[in-house]
Amino acid sequence: MDSAQPALPEQPETASGACPSQAVMTLLAGKWALPILTELARGPVRNNALLRRIDGVSQKVLTQNLRELERSGLIERIDHGTVPPSVEYRLTDLGRSLDRTLVGLDRWAERHHAALAEARAQHDLRRVEPE
After folding, report:
1. What is the rounded CA–CA span in Å between residue 65 and residue 79?
2. Which helix (H) or strand (E) holds 87?
3. Across the beta sheet with 45-46, what order do the strands follow?
4. Residue 13 and residue 21: Cα distance in Å, rounded?
5. What is the CATH number of domain 20-97?
6. What are 62-114's pLDDT values in tens digits?
7. What residues contact residue 74 under an 8 Å CB cut-off, 6+ apart?
8. Rounded-to-integer distance, Cα 18 and Cα 12, Å
9. Segment 33-47, tens digit of pLDDT
10. To the nearest 10°, the Cα dihedral for 50, 52, 41, 109?
């Protein structure tokens, strides 16, 4: 192993055989999870405000994603018990603990998205060329 590369920590398996980081990546890999978490990182937000701020998401899909993020403990649903109903969402401590990781991932993506696109294009060209 290259001594310049730190050894990756051993990933324990869960009962289903998936490692914890795989489960987290699956949760965050959906199209809407990161935009939702990004909006909530700015502070508590009502459902309709999220719907307006996140371009292209439907109410149904937003609700599904909010429920899954709440189920996973990353966000909290706050019902103010008013009529008409007033509900807002905010990050939990667990959700806020992801902030630095997501910022780092975003910075990495900004630095390397062009290289990723170029690598894909080069790969696709090699696959199309006759042998």
Report:
1. 17
2. strand 87-91
3. 45-46, 87-91, 75-79
4. 10
5. 1.10.10.10
6. 999 999 999 999 999 999 999 998 999 999 999 999 988 988 988 999 999 99
7. 27, 37, 91, 92, 94, 95, 98
8. 8
9. 999 999 999 999 999
10. 120
